[in-house]
Amino acid sequence: MSLHHHFEVRLPDWVQPFIGHWLNGGGPPLDTTEHRMLLAIALSAENVRQGTGGPFGAIVLNQETGQLAGIGVNLVTSSGLSVAHAEIVALSLAQRFVEDWDLAAAAPMQLVSSCEPCAMCLGAVPWSGVSSLVCGADFTDAESAGFDEGDKPSDWLMSLSNRGLEVKVHVLREEAAKVLSEYAQMAGEIYNSRRMQE
Amino acid sequence: MSLHHHFEVRLPDWVQPFIGHWLNGGGPPLDTTEHRMLLAIALSAENVRQGTGGPFGAIVLNQETGQLAGIGVNLVTSSGLSVAHAEIVALSLAQRFVEDWDLAAAAPMQLVSSCEPCAMCLGAVPWSGVSSLVCGADFTDAESAGFDEGDKPSDWLMSLSNRGLEVKVHVLREEAAKVLSEYAQMAGEIYNSRRMQE
Q: How far apart are alpha carbons B85 and B15 in whole angstroms?
């Protein structure tokens, strides 16, 4: 084994045609918060169906125009990297899109996630420069499905709000949570519980 | 602008010879916690000197043997990715080294960071599978130098401990904090404060 000097995260091959179809009329326009959440949820479900990772999807878009800037699905098992959560992937790809580590440098940007971010992704949100966060399922839905959300500040909504971020939770919660519970029922690998503790 | 489907994080060219020199007798053996911290601090200082990012360095090693598995420096500005903190880079490269998203699958692994992790990196620690965290400077040192550590659970030490992680803080704190304060004095770009708020 030798030391590595770079790592790469790559969306699975199914994502590009899936998004292309959605944007070409296969899905509703990305105009309302609910329509945007539908795409995040569809990504979470398709990620499970394709066997490329856990039941989580996220997108980053221009909050005003709805232009898509970044796409993410959970890629922990397929990429071999524990940081490859849907939100981290979507934020990083959006930063490649705007060519800046600070998304705020481009336009007011919005992160739409099929599930409330875990402790790591929550910590990543302010550093990314997004100005708005929209969540579907919440931590109780994730935990019911066997996922560990990590240890967050108890007042995380207020923390983000104090940093000037708009946060909207429980957008299409039922639809988002359904993907989680179906995944749990089929006993998918719960990727972010440490194996030693399983 | 078109949507991106992959992103890569690459250590700067200076890292490989720097580490080679260290391991070949340029630095002390990676046997004690203090010796390991010396390397993390040296990486943080060299990262500033080389102009490749903020004053933060981290390594991941086999806790028992001291074999180096991953190296990280802060690469936010040079990589254009807000997630490219030293700890995230070191953990991800270590996961490439052991070829598993769960470092615990290989051996008890240790993350040694020149500074207490920010909220994002702290959230990443349990998902990575490391069994031990060693920190040099603390959040007050980072904040004195103008860095934002994010909103962490107030009892984060206890949270990690409850998850079975060993945590050691303030290892060579003075030496680690000196790199931060020197960086602040030369008015380096404080990369993780949002520009809008500066």
A: 15
